[in-house]
């Protein structure tokens, strides 16, 4: 009989281990997707691989129109749009599998599809009026109106509450004024879901999501940003000056924009994490090709233990990343909340993909530093993922607060996995107990004041995330004995990291005092310059 | 419960106004921290942390997460203050 999951550190429901293990071992969420997904993955992979020249896209800083049209013709802009509106109706989990495949070929194309499918489309799917959906979805699905999400502003990045763009009620219309920066897909998008303050609709600081078509008078699209990576993706500033839209363009309940934006970001972060899985897969593939062919000291460099350690670590990080992305998709399909899981997947996958690319570059030696091998481009492409859709530093603070804000379970069930992973399960359980004790101490010592101890919150979030990912790897391997070796290695790595983060937690307050002392010294002369500068 | 008569009301509203850079006269005690005042979970915890310091009350994190409106925060502070006074008198 299936055993209930131990309630901590996870914030997801207590489904049974067998269902979770099965869910983590496959890319689809439903029986229907099990049939359709392999076909879509094969076709989209073939199509993009045949048309996308990653080096040229990187060099030119744009996705060619022909490629954009081809993916539109293949229906990829309808990936997550419900079938009744002409889309494929894929779940988040299935869409992640497609986006990961695309990212392994060309990351900017994957960003375009992923952003459109998540942040771009989902607010309209979940909150839009029937009339607006009926009017917009045909064009969205066909790719004639690519979707975008405009939240970030110059003074409001990870802190969405600082947004200044306003939506003012004027008769039966809403007048949108403000400037959004770093709008992904913005240059070629046909519509923008805009997060704006709407003080007339709710309290004086209420926010709403507003759907603004590109052709609305008062909408101005700025030039493309010159970026370090994902250079083919579109990133622009979009300005709204008296852009009038009907009040029916407000998505969902007016005044709930912050919560609605966070819900959309759960999709966006997961799809971005899936893209990281794809980039990591490509980097590992390049590294394996290189270490098995490159000869040094009379044998392939892949024979050396030092190289094998890189490769094993890369594979373990990729395994954990893929597991966590599937867990988010599985949780959503099971009706569970995904805000914390998606946040964790975004942080872990973005960091893992950068580490994997860095190790691939290291294994390539000087060749990796040269553009034609492609490793340098992969590294540049994934760097931004630790920043956009919530900087990891801030997400970890949020994650730590969310973990500590939950009422602790009085006596969490022990994790028991009889079989080949029994030893790892016991190690996990011991660390979970240590984690529970450590978080109880933090709660008792700091109360709500812990919100001012960012290193404490980050250490809690990181320990929780490592334990969560380790648990996922263990359950996934229960359903896939062929993955046992990899799962064991991934779990060992994650448990080692969890232990390190618990050690970080124990000394976090002391570390904070130290970093404050050093940075105060460094800031002091700069502050003086600022004060003395008459301008 | 309305806390319009609460002695903490004005101080809490003053803190909200200061943190959010809002006109205190436009803040209602029935305002919801998230929907009406645009605070996310982290911002509302910052506020409650300030309240905890300024009014010298202990606020547990899980209790803080359950406060929805300014009224809730005021009522909570009043209750905890009374409990702390009671505990002090008893000891």
General description of the model:
- The complex is a heterodimer of chains A (535) and B (91).
- By secondary structure, chain A is an alpha+beta fold.
- Chain A is 57% helix and 10% strand.
- Chain A is built from 17 helices and ten strands.
- In chain A, helix 1 packs across helix 15, helix 9 packs antiparallel against helix 10 (305-333) and helix 14 runs antiparallel to helix 15.
- Mean pLDDT of chain A is 93; it is low at 1-7, 11-15 and 530-535.
- In chain B, 56% of the residues lie in helices and 0% in strands.
- The longest helix of chain B is centred in the last third of the chain and has 21 residues, at 70-90.
- Chain B is mainly alpha-helical.
- Chain B is globular, with a radius of gyration of 13 Å.
- Chain B contains four helices and no strands.
- Chain B has helices spanning 9-20, 41-54, 61-64, 70-90.
- Helix percent band of chain A: 55-70%
- Percentage of residues in strands of chain B: under 5%
- Parts with pLDDT < 50 across at least 5 consecutive residues of chain A: 1-7, 11-15, 530-535
Query: Helix segment count of chain A?
Result: 17
* Biggest pleated-sheet summary of chain A: 4 strands, mixed
CATH superfamily of the domain at 17-142 in chain A: Acyl-CoA dehydrogenase/oxidase, N-terminal domain
Strand order of the largest sheet of chain A: 1-4-5-8
Largest sheet of chain B at a glance?
A: none
| CATH class annotation of chain B | Mainly Alpha
Task: Provide tags for this entry.
heterodimer, A: 535 residues, alpha+beta, Butyryl-Coa Dehydrogenase, subunit A, domain 1, Butyryl-CoA Dehydrogenase, subunit A, domain 2, Butyryl-CoA Dehydrogenase, subunit A, domain 3, four-stranded mixed sheet, globular, disordered N terminus, disordered C terminus, B: 91 residues, mainly alpha, Non-ribosomal Peptide Synthetase Peptidyl Carrier Protein, Chain A, 56% helix
């Amino acid at each position: 009989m299936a055993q209930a999951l131990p309630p901590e550190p996870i914030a997801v429901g207590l489904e049974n281990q067998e269902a979770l293990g099965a869910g983590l071992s496959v890319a689809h969420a439903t029986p229907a997707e099990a049939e359709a997904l392999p076909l879509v993955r094969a076709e989209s992979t073939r199509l993009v691989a045949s048309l996308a020249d990653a080096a040229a896209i990187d060099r030119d800083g744009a996705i060619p129109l022909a490629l954009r049209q081809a993916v539109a013709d293949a229906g990829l802009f309808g990936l997550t749009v419900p079938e009744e509106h002409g889309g494929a109706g894929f779940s988040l989990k299935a869409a992640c599998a497609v986006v990961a495949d695309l990212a392994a070929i060309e990351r900017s194309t994957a960003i375009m599809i992923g952003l459109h499918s998540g942040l771009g489309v989902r607010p309209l799917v979940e909150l839009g009026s029937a009339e607006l959906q009926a009017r917009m979805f045909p064009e969205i699905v066909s790719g004639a109106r690519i979707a975008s999400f405009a939240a970030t502003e110059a003074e409001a990045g990870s802190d969405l509450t600082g947004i200044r763009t306003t939506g003012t009620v004027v008769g039966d219309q809403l007048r949108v004024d403000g400037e959004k920066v770093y709008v992904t897909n913005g240059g070629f998008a046909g519509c923008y879901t805009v997060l704006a303050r709407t003080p007339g609709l709710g309290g004086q600081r209420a926010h709403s999501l507003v759907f603004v078509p590109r052709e609305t008078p008062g909408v101005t699209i700025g030039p493309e940003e010159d970026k370090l990576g994902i250079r083919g993706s579109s990133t622009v500033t979009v300005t709204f000056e008296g852009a009038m839209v009907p009040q029916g363009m407000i998505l969902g309940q007016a005044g709930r924009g912050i919560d609605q934006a966070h819900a959309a970001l759960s999709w966006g972060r997961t799809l971005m994490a899936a893209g990281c899985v794809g980039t990591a897969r490509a980097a590992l593939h390049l590294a394996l090709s290189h270490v098995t062919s490159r000869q040094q000291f009379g044998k392939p460099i892949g024979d050396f233990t030092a190289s094998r350690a890189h490769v094993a670590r890369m594979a373990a990080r990729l395994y954990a990343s893929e597991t966590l992305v599937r867990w988010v998709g599985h949780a959503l399909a099971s009706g569970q909340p995904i805000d914390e899981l998606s946040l964790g997947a975004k942080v872990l996958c973005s960091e893992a993909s950068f580490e994997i690319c860095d190790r691939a570059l290291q294994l390539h030696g000087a060749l990796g530093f040269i553009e034609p091998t492609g490793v340098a481009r992969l590294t540049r492409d994934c760097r931004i993922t630790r920043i956009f859709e919530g900087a990891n530093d801030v997400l970890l603070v949020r994650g730590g607060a969310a973990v500590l804000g939950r009422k602790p379970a009085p006596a969490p069930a022990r994790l028991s996995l009889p079989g080949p992973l029994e030893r790892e399960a016991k190690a996990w359980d011991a660390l979970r107990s240590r984690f529970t004790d450590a978080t109880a101490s933090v709660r008792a010592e700091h109360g709500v004041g812990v919100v001012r101890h960012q290193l404490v919150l980050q250490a809690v979030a990181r320990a929780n995330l490592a334990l969560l990912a380790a648990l996922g790897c263990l359950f996934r391997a229960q359903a896939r004995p062929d993955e046992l070796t990899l799962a064991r290695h991934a779990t060992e790595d994650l448990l080692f990291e969890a232990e390190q983060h618990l050690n970080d937690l124990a000394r976090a307050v002391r570390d904070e005092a130290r970093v404050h002392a050093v940075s105060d010294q460094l800031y002091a002369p700069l502050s003086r310059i600022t004060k003395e500068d008459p301008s | 419960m309305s806390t319009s008569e609460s002695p903490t009301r004005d101080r809490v509203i003053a803190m909200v106004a200061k943190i959010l850079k809002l006109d205190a006269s436009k803040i209602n005690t029935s305002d919801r921290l998230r929907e009406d005042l645009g605070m996310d979970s982290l911002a509302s915890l910052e506020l409650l942390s300030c309240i905890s310091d300024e009014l010298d009350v202990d606020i547990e994190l899980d209790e803080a997460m359950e406060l929805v409106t300014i009224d809730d925060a005021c009522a909570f502070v009043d209750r905890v203050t009374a409990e702390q006074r009671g505990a002090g008198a008893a000891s």
